[in-house]
Amino acid sequence: MARIVVLGGSFGGLTAAFELRRMLGKRAEVTVLCDDDKFVFVPSLPWVSMGSRKASDITLPLKPILERKGITFIHETAKGVDADASRVVSASGEVPYDYLVIATGPYLAFEEVPGLGPEKGHTECIFTLDQAERTSRTWNKFLENPGPIVTGSVQGVSCFGPPYEYAFEIDTELRKRRIRHKVPIVFVTSEPFIGHFGIGGLRNSKLMMENEFAERDIRIITNAVVEEITSGELKLKEGTKIPFKLSMFAPAMKGVPAVAHLGNPRGFIPVDGNYRHKKYRNIFAVGVAVAIAPPEQTPVPTGVPKTGYMTVKMAKAASTSIAADITGSTPPEGVPIDVVCLMDMGNTAAIMKAAPVLPPRQESDLKVGARYKWLKIAFERYYLWKIKNGLSALP
Ligand SMILES: Cc1cc2nc3c(=O)[nH]c(=O)nc-3n(C[C@H](O)[C@H](O)[C@H](O)COP(=O)(O)OP(=O)(O)OC[C@H]3O[C@@H](n4cnc5c(N)ncnc54)[C@H](O)[C@@H]3O)c2cc1C
């Protein structure tokens, strides 16, 4: 029986584990090793930071879900991977594998900008559950005595969506409370233009987003390099200083330390069209862990986002290839990944589509409308239901 180990219990890891179990049944022993004992629906973290979701609304315990499916769950942190010996190294020992799926997501590189981040710096973040809960507490305190806000993405960021959501959500909430006039908002981003999103923009995204920020009276600074953040002040490399009472910034990402040695200089794993490691052929990587070259060199470095939808598709493709290997069938040709993403905008929402994700594209669009807000809420419920029942979310 083939031993398959999956690192990570989120979008990529769970999809791969469920799919491998479904396709291979008793032909494989599937193990998920994860440092978190719960699944977190990450796209709802901005709502946690605004107080409209609690942790219990968007998390599910991994052990019962996996064990019901006949998948072994090990709640541990992978410390490393010995790719030559085909073993994962954890604190309590070694886990051997015939196939490994890496779905460990990002390491958040706050240390790359002095003063960035909630732990050692002066900015909030909403990329993990703990951070989003902390941002929610900071927000409640801020509301008692509001002042200027600066938010956005520093140099090297690849996950641009959440700061957009955050800017639109705080704008909506401040207007609801009729205190928007007390809060100047500046949106600082390393993107070359607003609506670029790290993928060269979508058909009309620049115009739509410029218009949206103007309507909401949010000042935009693009091509920004953040030099330093001190208590209450953000300094850009060109000298501009922006005072703030509250700041939320996306950090650049790297591969997590346990697998970084298998990746490029930033620790992201190089894969072929079937998400198979280019050198170690029994290792696959999916989701944020994967290396994707940007579509263009931007004046300030930016990366390509790897969204939940893309991650699920990658995990399905990788699982299909592993199953084909094990059953001796021909693996499918690698297909370019497309993306569909729903972005909350507080009082409304947007749907973004790009097929394939990097230009030139067959299809590319951004539409704004209240119905996409309902779709986003419905998708959250649908995805959590799917995970709870051990099913992967996309056909
Ligand atoms: C705030 C925010 C909002 C987002 N909104 C959207 C959205 O609206 N739509 C969308 O499509 N995408 C969205 N995304 C992107 C989406 O969340 C990611 O694409 C998705 O989470 C990637 O899944 P993943 O499995 O690759 O990594 P992750 O979700 O980051 O999961 C990594 C997993 O690996 C585990 N892990 C890490 N290191 C180790 C280790 N050493 N040992 C064991 N386990 C480890 C972690 O605990 C976790 O379970 C958003 C991202 C953020 C941060």
Descriptive report:
It contains nine helices and 22 strands. The chain is an alpha/beta fold. It folds into two domains: 2-108 and 254-334, FAD/NAD(P)-binding domain; 110-252, FAD/NAD(P)-binding domain (3-Layer(bba) Sandwich). Helix 5 (161-176) links the parallel strand 11 and strand 12. Helix 1 (11-24) runs parallel beside helix 8. The chain is globular and about 65 Å long. 48% of the residues are buried. The mean pLDDT is 97. The protein binds flavin-adenine dinucleotide. Flavin-adenine dinucleotide binds at residues 7-13, 33-36, 42-43, 45-46, 77-78, 103-106, 126-127, 159, 161-162, 256, 258, 287-289, 306-309, 311, 341-342. Flavin-adenine dinucleotide is lined by residues 7-13, 33-36, 42-43, 45-46, 77-78, 103-106, 126-127, 159, 161-162, 256, 258, 287-289, 306-309, 311, 341-342.
Summarize this, please?
With 395 residues, this protein is of the alpha/beta class.
Task: Kindly report how far apart the N and C termini lie.
Answer: 27 Å
Percent strand equals 15-25%
CATH overall fold name of the largest domain = FAD/NAD(P)-binding domain
Q: What CATH architecture of the largest domain do you see?
A: 3-Layer(bba) Sandwich
Radius of gyration: 21 Å
Q: Mean pLDDT, as a whole number?
A: 97
| Largest beta sheet: strand ordering | 5-2-1-9-19
Distinct small molecules: flavin-adenine dinucleotide
DSSP strand count: 22
Largest sheet: 5 strands, parallel
Q: What's the number of helices?
A: 9
